Every structure is written in C-alpha cells, then in structure tokens.
C-alpha cells in the first residue's frame, strides 16, 4: 500500500501498551521520524463517538455481534481517515489496538470465533495488516487488576466511564488472553510477544531493539 511502516500495540487493558506506545512515539520523534499515532476504538470524531458507546458500562447493552460491527465501523473509518493516508505519506504509524484486539476480545472473549473477525477485516479494512505487532503479555492476574484500578481512577478523576469490559467475568478475560497467545503463535513473523512482569524501562528497551531491527530491515528491502 505504501512506503510507511505500521506498528500496532496489543494486550489486555493493564498490560502497559498505551504507556509504551507513548514512549516509542517520543523516542522516534526525537530522531526526526514522522509519526502518526492513533487508537482504536477512537482516534477520529466518528470513532470517539463509537468508543463512548462501546466502552461505557452505563450505556446500552450491546449484543456481541453489534459490538463486533461497531468495532469494525470504527476501524474502517480509522483506516481510511488516518492510517492509510499516513502510510501513503511514508510515515511510521503507531496504533493502540487493531484487528488483533477484535479477534481476541470479540472472537475469543465473546466466543464469536476468529473466522468471522478475519473475514470482516478482509472486506472492511482492505486486509491491511501491521508490519509489526508488539503484544504485551504480563501475567494475567496482574494485568487484569491494573486495568480495573486504572479505570476506577479515570472514572473518579474525569467522570469518563470506560469500564464496560472490565466489569466482565474473569473467564471472559482468560479466553481473551488465550486468544492473544493463539494469534502470536499463528502470526509469529508479525507478532512479537513480550511476556513477563518486567519494569516499564526494561520493556521499553526490548521494544526499541525490536523496532530498530524491523525498521532497518524494512528500509533496506525498499532500496
């Protein structure tokens, strides 16, 4: 599609992916790289409205297939409005969640299966795949507890409720976690799983080494 490079960050809420994306963005920008960063759901005016509806635990009760459809409505908008244009400009695109999240949460957690998610991605997102996916996988229990603490803090300080998924039972998240492991094994050339309970700086050091190596290889192959 382009000469840009597309990096996604994945993992359960509480895995530290958003923090690591911000650190990588700052580092790459300090080197003079052109960076576009976004998130899903959200990142566009349409997507932010979808995000508010999908994640608000006080909102309407969405059936799983409606939730899936809204995730892809958000993603299709993001691909066309933000991601594809940035890649065409030759930029590095950093995205907090992409279709792997939908396969993990809706395909695995909601038990809708991988086939439906992957088929929708082909039709609605031009089958656009990241060049590199960084999957942060700290221990399951620690990740889940951090997510719940963070969302309670956000609700208390901003009034913004994004607790809908965190209110679900542990088995939902266990299925989601296991699906992430399945994706990593299946797409091992694209997905790099960073497992264990390392500190923020140690994880970032690993991420930076991976990104530097992949970017260097990508750019070498373009010449």
What does this structure look like?
The chain has a single domain (5-222), classed as Rossmann fold. A five-stranded parallel beta sheet has the order 2-3-1-4-5, sandwiched between helices. It is α/β, with parallel strands linked by helices and 223 residues long. The longest helix has 25 residues, at 64-88. The chain has eight helices and five strands; from the N terminus they run βαβααβααβααβα. Helix 4 (99-109) crosses helix 7. The protein is globular and about 50 Å long. The mean pLDDT is 91. 59% of the residues lie in helices and 12% in strands. It has helices at residues 17-30, 45-55, 64-88, 99-109, 114-124, 140-158, 170-186, 200-222; strands at 5-10, 35-39, 92-96, 132-137, 191-195.
Brief write-up:
The protein has helices spanning 17-30, 45-55, 64-88, 99-109, 114-124, 140-158, 170-186, 200-222, and strands spanning 5-10, 35-39, 92-96, 132-137, 191-195. It has 223 residues and is α/β, with parallel strands linked by helices.
Keywords:
223 residues; alpha/beta; 5-stranded parallel sheet; 8 helices; 5 strands; 12% strand
Name given to the CATH homologous superfamily: P-loop containing nucleotide triphosphate hydrolases
The Cα radius of gyration reads 17 Å
Strand order of the largest sheet: 2-3-1-4-5
Number of individual domains: 1
Extended strand count: 5
- Provide a count of the helices: 8
Question: Can you tell me the CATH architecture?
Answer: 3-Layer(aba) Sandwich
CATH topology (fold) name? Rossmann fold
């Amino acid at each position: 599609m382009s000469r840009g490079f597309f990096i996604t960050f994945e993992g359960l809420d509480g895995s530290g992916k958003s923090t690591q994306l911000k650190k990588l963005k700052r580092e790459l920008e300090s080197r003079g790289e052109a960076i576009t960063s976004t998130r899903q759901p959200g990142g566009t005016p349409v997507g932010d409205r979808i995000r508010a509806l999908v994640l608000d635990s006080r909102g309407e009760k969405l059936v799983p297939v409606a939730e899936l459809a809204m995730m892809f409505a958000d993603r299709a908008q993001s691909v066309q409005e933000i991601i594809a244009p940035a890649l065409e400009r030759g930029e590095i695109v950093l995205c907090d969640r992409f279709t792997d999240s939908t396969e993990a949460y809706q395909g695995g957690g909601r038990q809708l299966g991988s086939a439906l998610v992957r088929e929708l991605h082909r039709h609605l997102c031009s089958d656009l795949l990241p060049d590199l996916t960084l999957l942060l996988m700290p221990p399951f229990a620690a990740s889940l507890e951090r997510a719940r603490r963070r969302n309670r803090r956000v609700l208390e300080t901003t009034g913004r409720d994004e607790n809908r998924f965190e209110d679900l039972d542990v088995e939902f998240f266990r299925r989601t976690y296991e699906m992430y492991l399945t994706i990593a094994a299946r797409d091992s050339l694209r997905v790099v799983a960073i497992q264990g309970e390392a500190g923020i700086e140690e994880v970032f050091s690993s991420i930076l080494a991976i990104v530097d190596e992949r970017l260097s290889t990508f750019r070498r192959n373009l010449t």
